[in-house]
UniProtKB/TrEMBL annotation:
Gene3D superfamilies: YaeB-like (2.40.30.70). This is Protein virR. Belongs to the tRNA methyltransferase O family. It comes from the Eukaryota. It comes from Zea mays. Keywords: Membrane, S-adenosyl-L-methionine, Transmembrane, Transmembrane helix. CDD domains: UPF0066. SUPFAM superfamilies: YaeB-like. It holds the Pfam family TrmO_N.
Length: 387
């Protein structure tokens, strides 16, 4: 039997050997890890350098393409134009307008002219969270920036800009066909088809706004919303040209409704009231009266009301072959019959030489798009207030 001291010494020696062995293994592991870290750092540095080189290459390529696209066409010398410093800024709509006006014709030429003109602005939840509208209901009015999406020059302007030529002057309704510089008017045919309108904020609900006094056609893409600030947006003593100061230049003498129209409207109203922005057929009739209180006809229609070339469209209506292709007219027994499309209803009317309007009939539009946000959806949100 070994002495106790010998056993204790052997145990200590074994423990020391185990510790030394563990230290050797730990050092080797640390060395391997340190080598791996150095390899990863070197690989990261190489990758970063490649990414930087690719980025520099893309920037140089973009600069070269921009310079080439801005050279004067047909020039033997590669001389940059004055627009060489210009850039392109693509904009994406944040929402869409659901308006009482189905077509361009009949949509007011300016905002707040037809106070009963209503629309809902439905924002895209993927682009604009509901929280972005917080506080907007405290303002009475807001600015709407939008695209003139029914502009007849839009395809050429965006898809083939080389073929699109800016018309420096446009015909002005108040000048009875006289022309004015396009940038001195609010014509939709602009260098960039962007519109600016002020509207009354009636209510806000989630991603949707209820507006009134609008001059926006159904389906208008909206780019931005800004609150109206009276202290800065209303300029005291602001001047306008004399041709804009003529009172009642486009006002009509009177608007009359036939008994047949009132009966026909009652029938149509049963089909559209659930999705309409109006509480009753009487209120909708008030909208028609407001909209027709201003002569909504184009200049050519006012100057040559009986010189019309008509052709039946898919709905059996007759349309004039002019720039106002949405203003349908028929040549009937009593002369020219005009058509105004509101809330899915086709309102037909005549106008005599004394600017007296006679509203004759109302029929449902078969292809009318029913709204998702009608008056009933807003009634509780509006509370005791009446639109």
């Amino acid at each position: 039997m070994a002495p106790p001291r010998s056993l204790a010494g052997a145990a200590i020696a074994a423990t020391a050997a185990a510790i030394i062995l563990s230290c050797l293994f730990y050092r080797r592991k640390c060395a391997r890890l340190a080598a791996r870290v150095r390899e990863l750092e070197a690989s990261l540095a190489v990758t970063a350098e490649k990414a930087a080189a690719e980025r520099r290459g893309r920037v140089r390529a973009q600069q070269s393409l921009r310079a080439l696209s801005q050279l004067e066409p047909g020039s033997d010398e590669a001389r940059p134009t004055k627009a060489a410093a210009s850039a392109s800024y693509p904009l994406v709509p944040i929402g869409t307008v659901e308006s009482c006006f189905s077509t361009r014709n009949g949509t007011p030429r300016q905002p707040l002219v037809v106070t009963l003109a209503r629309a809902t602005l439905v924002l895209d939840p993927a682009r604009v969270p509901a929280a972005a509208l917080e506080g907007l209901a405290s303002y009475s009015h807001c600015w709407i920036l939008y695209v003139f999406h029914l502009n007849t020059d839009l395809d050429k302007l965006w898809k083939d800009p080389a073929r699109s030529k800016l018309k420096a002057k446009v015909r002005v309704p108040r000048l009875k066909g006289g022309k004015m510089g396009v940038l001195a008017t609010r014509s939709p045919h602009r260098p960039n088809p962007i519109g600016l309108s002020v509207a009354k904020v009636e209510a806000v609900n989630g991603h949707t706004l209820l507006l009134s006094g609008v001059d926006l056609v159904d389906g208008t893409p909206v780019l931005d919303i800004k609150p109206y600030l009276p202290y800065s947006d209303s300029v005291k003593g602001a001047a306008v040209p004399s041709w804009l100061e003529v009172d009642g230049a486009l006002a009509v003498e009177s608007v009359h409704f036939s008994e047949h129209f009132i009966s026909a409207l009652s029938t149509c109203w049963m089909h559209v009231q659930q999705m309409s922005l109006y509480a009753s057929a009487d209120e909708f009739q008030d909208l028609i009266k407001q909209a027709l209180s201003w002569d909504i006809r184009s200049i050519s229609q006012r100057n040559r009301p009986h010189q019309v070339s008509v052709e039946a469209d898919a709905n059996g209506h007759c349309g004039e072959d002019t720039d106002d292709d949405h203003h349908h007219r028929d040549t009937g027994r009593y002369g020219v019959v005009y058509h105004l499309h509101l809330e899915g209803i086709d309102v037909s009317y005549r106008i005599d030489q004394g600017s007296n309007i006679f509203v004759e009939d109302a029929t449902l539009l078969p292809d009318a798009v029913q709204k998702r946000h009608g008056y009933l959806a807003w009634r509780d949100k509006l509370g005791s207030s009446v639109l």
